[in-house]
Backbone:
């Protein structure tokens, strides 16, 4: 949303223009629900927080000075409310503590794909990635693979990649909303992107190849 | 070998792609990154794939807001408007 369009919406909201409000709901409503769910226990609570936020936005619109963008202001109200609500309801884990869990030393690419320390070029590709068929990337099925890979990520990584790459938020907007450091959101994002890339690589290299033979399971295969 | 001219290995580069995109690498790391890319097909392909992942993720469609919730909000808006003009 451009700055001038935002200003126009703010003015129309002040004038009580319902279409302006509807546009804001359609633009941010689904994301707001998603962000609220990062802080509270269940969907119903998240919906309440979103409702309250819209009312706070309406009641505060006359005082909105445009020092931040409308979007930043709106999500700040949302996350403040969601956090308060989450704490009150005893949601055990604040996002910031989730953020670092289990991330340490998790490699972006399987170490087996690089040459070992005894080779003349340690850390160089042993099995480099192959270029992807670009025309397949925008196929609905490929996007489905990406969606699934994102859905399967650990919570904190999933939240960050959704905001940064799916929603197109800036690093600062994400760090601000989730109350994590810039470095932290980047580590989470990098882990997330790396996993999505790996999932896509598997999908794009297996597709179109001759049907893989069903592999005998080495564990159940042992039973005679 | 000086720390500043040390070549970047592919395995190191793949950890820095997001920092590179975000412009948060130190100047010397950015230089090492670019130098490496210019001579490495594998890493060029890798960085391109990360770009494609970002681009494709941006095409995922967000779910729409639930029509019931939308209706409630519009109703709340009308109430707010009435209260505002009454007060």
Residues:
């Amino acid at each position: 949303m451009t700055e001038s369009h935002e200003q126009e919406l703010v003015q129309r909201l002040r004038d009580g223009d319902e279409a302006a409000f509807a546009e804001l709901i359609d633009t941010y409503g689904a994301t707001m629900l998603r962000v609220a769910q990062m802080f509270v226990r269940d969907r119903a609570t998240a919906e309440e927080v979103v409702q309250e936020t819209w009312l706070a936005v309406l009641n505060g619109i006359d005082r909105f000075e445009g020092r931040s963008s409308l979007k930043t202001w709106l999500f700040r109200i949302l996350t403040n409310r969601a956090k308060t609500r989450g704490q009150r309801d005893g949601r055990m884990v604040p996002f910031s503590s989730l953020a670092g869990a289990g991330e340490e030393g998790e490699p972006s690419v399987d170490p087996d794909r690089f040459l070992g320390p005894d080779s003349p070029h340690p850390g160089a590709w042993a099995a480099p990635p192959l270029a992807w068929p670009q025309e397949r990337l925008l196929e609905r099925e490929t996007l489905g693979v990406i969606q699934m890979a994102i859905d399967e990520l650990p919570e904190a990584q999933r939240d960050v990649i959704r905001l940064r790459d799916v929603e197109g938020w800036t690093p600062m907007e994400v760090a601000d909303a989730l109350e994590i450091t810039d470095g932290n959101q980047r580590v989470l994002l990098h882990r997330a992107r790396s996993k999505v890339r790996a999932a896509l690589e598997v999908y794009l290299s297996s597709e179109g190849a001759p049907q893989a033979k069903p592999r005998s399971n080495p564990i159940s295969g042992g039973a005679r | 070998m000086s720390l500043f001219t040390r070549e970047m290995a592919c395995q190191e580069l793949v950890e820095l792609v997001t920092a590179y995109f975000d412009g948060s690498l130190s100047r010397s790391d950015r230089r090492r990154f670019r130098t490496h890319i210019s001579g490495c097909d594998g890493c060029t392909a890798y960085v391109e794939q990360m770009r494609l992942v970002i681009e494709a993720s941006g095409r995922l469609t967000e779910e729409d807001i639930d029509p019931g919730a939308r209706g409630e909000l519009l109703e709340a808006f009308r109430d707010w408007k009435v209260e505002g003009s009454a007060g």
